[in-house]
Protein: FAD-dependent oxidoreductase
Organism: Psychromarinibacter halotolerans
Amino acid sequence: MERAEHQDVIVVGGGPVGMGLAIDLAQRGMRVLVLEKYPSPQLIPKGQNLTQRTMEHFRAWNAEDELRAAKTVPASFGIGGMTAYGTLLGKYHYDWLKRELVRDFYAADNERLPQYQTEAVLRARAADLPNIRLLAGYEAEDVTEDDSGVTVTARRREDGGTDSFRAAWCVGADGSRSVVREAAKLGQTVFDHDRTMVLLVFQSDKLHQRLMEKHPGKSFLNVLHPDLKGYWLFFGRVDLEGEFFFHAPIPADADPETFDFHDYVQKAVGEPIDMEIRHRGFWDCRVAIAESYGRGRVFIAGDAAHNHPPYGGYGINTGFEDARNLGWKLAAVHDGWAGPELLASYDLERRPVFWSTAKDYIEKAIETDRDFLAAYNPDTDLAAFEEAWNGRGSNASADVDAFQPNYRGSPVVDGARDGTADAVFPHSFEARPGFHLAPRELSDGKTLFDLQDGGFSLIALGREADADAFRTAAAQAGIPLQVMTADPEGQARDYGAALVLVRPDCFVSWVGDSADLATATDALATSCGAAAPAEAQGLRRAAS
């Protein structure tokens, strides 16, 4: 049956990324239909660690307070990480992934809670927005595109019947086995680590007690064991009532159905513990990326576009950034002020960032740990091991400062269009085209993140005449722009420029110390994809 209702965007997949995108679009005035196969979030505690940047998204989606209220571990406990050698309760350990070290560069604290709680908060927020319709119990089967829109055919899980839905665009946020990706023939490159991994959810009062004694305040803990060649035994708290999850590779010759997971976990802990397994699942350890994040009227986001082992909490956060990047660009096209290159920039910005995240952090971590375990052994040379282990501990949070996804070289930010976007760059308060803007107080004591209304923002340190040039240029092009004034001698001077143009997703697109109408017009045109310079065309060919 074909449904007559029309919407601007169909989002296939009502997980966290799909619901985040739906909220982003709806807040920009677009009508969104979400097709989700499950009637309620699945109670599997994956995707727990939410970065400060992700919490900026929840702030923009008007759901930050609700998310923090939903967490299962109280703030007083802490959400820190730890790395141990050999066994979880062994002698050697150090703190790991201390995200609080970069707190000053973001407008919100990081958070940690099970993914099903995150999904519930997003569903509740979506329910408050009348232009979002969530249809649960629908599983997409096909997506077809024509000149005027997209048709999504979905099967009703309740009775097996099918319905068809129409929209101007479709976005697949339907996971690693994405129907949307396959239907759109976007292709996928896979780097298989040839490891079958287990995910256990279990209850253990003894482990809870021992960790409270030995490692209080630690919520996620990974163990390096020589036999595993760099792959982790990874524990995480779900709550403070003894529920944990556990990721680990299973032996290559093991039968997952008969393997003794109780014994495996106890050996990883290093002591006998009580253990009630509540969930057991398996996944393949691999890195996969779509060959394109979309074309025409069909796009993909989150695990449909990219997936990797759950090391370091990068996955769900990367998906949320996809949603925030794509949301304003679709809205700009819908509202008529986007240029022809704006939607293409979604792939050109987000895909290189994932490549870098996977290669420079996740796979590099596996390789670094593998090399360390091969080179150092406390049983054969204790002094050398302890020296190397202590060195690792003192440098364990270097990746936190260096992890800063950026869009250098994008065709819609100022500067050379050389496609150098990646995830590796030290944090700074300096405003740089292609980089996330750090919060600095403006003249009224608030930051951009307190004042932003969803469109472009110009931060002007004095320079009223130059700000007027941007106001005029934006009005002529129909681009939503608000001007925020700042004290040239206040915190905003850390930006290093008198004028800072910021995109709706809080990335800088242009900086300067002066601007006339022509300069402002060009800066806004570039930021909205209005031009298609030769360099940008070359980037598109290289990405296709």
Summary: The longest helix spans residues 344-375.
